[in-house]
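Handout for the seminar on molecular recognition.
Each group receives one record of this type.
Step one: identify the two inputs.
Step two: read the structure output and locate the region that could contact iron/sulfur cluster.
Step three: write two sentences on what you found, then compare them with the reference statements printed after the record.
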Amino acid sequence: MEALHARYPFFESAREAVDAAAVDLGELVVREDAPAVERAVERVTTALTDGDVGAPRRRTRTELLSYPVARVLVSLVDEPVVTRTYAQAEAATAIERVRADVTEDADLSYGSAGEVTLPGLLDEFDLTDAVRAVEEDATTFRVDVTAYLRLSSGLDGDAWRLNRRALADGDVPVDRDELLVLLRQAVEDRVAEGLPLGVPDAIADALAPAIAQVEEVLADIDVAVDIDRVLPELFPPCVQALLERARDGEELPAHSWFSLCSFCATIGMDAPAVLELLDVTAETDPVLAQRVRYGMERVAGERGVEYPLPSCETMDAYGDCVNKDDLCAEVAHPTGYYEARVDASGD
Ligand code: SF4
């Protein structure tokens, strides 16, 4: 087991390292103080609260083994919102690590124990032949159109549309940040692949306390965002900015749009209320009205809001944390901002 495996536990080589170590998951999870189980709980709960998977443990073995245990936990909780949020958090954390590991050196090929190289990452996802650095410009890449479409299909938004790209010879040009967004999607898909897993009863029983911890955090989140008053003037700056962009006719990227819809659903708004807030109707702007209906349907599940509004940290990573004010320094989540302002207003 190498440091690289602990940093990128979804790599095929990491799975092989776990297999080679012949770790018996059943034996591992029955130990009440198993550090890998404790870290697995942290991976999943931090995903729910902060949008990442938390600080890594120093022991490579603990850190690496916590990943398959976390996937088992997510499978046992078996809530779409948990599965999706967990996969997104693993991907967000991985890409932050990639940013730290891969510099803007022209050859993009260095790396040492515990670090990944860009060629290594592309190879991991069978993208070696599909992505090429543009000669003498290591900040621009050309992505084979098939791979581009596969990885960008969930990244709704004008900028990702093929007709907005200078497609040439079957390749789509992307800059370094865009390439990382595509790779983040590849990681998310890899993490979510095969979930929920079938889990033997003995392992499920042994993990019952860990499952309870995850469900407790999930319940707390539901309580924490239980605000049902609509006071637009008190909305956090990030949400105000997204609303403004939508009103101006901009087609927001999918993550931004779902964040906006999630906030609105969280405070009890439905699609007609959002349309009113945006000052549009199906007659004045049928396209936006349709997007609102679709977005609100997607975020609202049978058990409440199923696409949770990301934390401030994740909003920042998406570029959606803007116009911060003094209160922003005191909150970790946009709903915390709104709650604080609603409380302070006395309404
Ligand atoms: S700090 Fe949080 S609440 Fe404030 S603008 Fe950024 S994302 Fe929104």
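Reference statements: Residues 3-97+193-221 form one domain. The chain has three domains: 3-97+193-221, 101-190, 225-345.
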